[in-house]
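Deliverable D4.2, example record:
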Amino acid sequence: MSTGIRVLVCDDHLVFAESLALVFVDAGHTVTGVTGTVDEVVDLLGTTDVDVCVLDVHLADGDLVDRLAEIRAAAPDARLVLLTGRLEPGLAPLALAAGVAGLVHKGQHVGGILDAVRRVHAGETVVDPVYRRPARAEPALYRLAAFLTPREREVLCRLVRGEHTAALARAMGITPATARCHIQSVLTKLGAHTRLEAATTAVRTGLVSAETGRWLAA
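Output generated by the structure prediction step:
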């Protein structure tokens, strides 16, 4: 059994985060930090050596998937394990395409999370079985997608690639305010509440490729 893994834990439920941190310490690993926001994760990764980041998908300052590129840039060698308590079809291909090495459901025993971290640190890619279920086609969503303008389709593709608002705006040559308007329009037309929900829905239903971020729907 490998020991001495340097783990960063991020979850906005403090009791869960601290309990999970104790599990890692009891197993002989080093917890380099316990945080509750993406901003704190990025700050810590700039000053602390981390082997594996264990990160909740939904945090107080937004959906973590929206900022995966930023996290990976802060610690290119760190392996990322995402935790989520929701069953979100399409999240697995989206996360894996963004370089995530593990996707684990929070509802399982903490020993399962510990085992996933060990395996990810050893070089494996670990995806909870509940996220391996085949996607189902949703023709109704294709009809909704037909109302997206070319600009909004580009925005949706960039959301699937994990681009945050500032990067999206720069790439499209628009202001951040205009980018936010386009993003909100996409969410409204798809009936999504968050960027992550819009991106996972687009991947799950085959509107956008998780691997390339390209528009696939005819």
